[in-house]
User: What shape does this take?
Amino acid sequence: MIWSILMDEASLMNLLTTAPPMAAFAGYLVYQNRGNVQRFDSLMQKSDERISDIRSRYDKVISDLQQEKMDFRDDANNIRTNLSTKIESINKQIDEMEKKFDRLLLVIDKIQEKLTELRIKDIARGNE
Assistant: This one.
């Protein structure tokens, strides 16, 4: 009765005769849509896994590079410290050598003075 109010009899007959093929096609479309959604979900999951894998490899490369950079800095600091220590040691040795050289010059001056005195005495003895 409700159908008769909304549609006339010819329209109702037309719907009944054409609806089953359209219903089958609609069912096919629903089935196809579900299959496509499942395939899309599967592809999205694989894509997410690939992205996650790429991201983890990227993060590993970045962390390895950062670690290498820190190791390089540590090595450079160690080398700098060692060189600084060696330079300080060399400076101390140079200072000690300068002091010894100054003492050696003083000893040589004293020896020259003694030699001069001995020559003068030798000359004086020769004149006597």
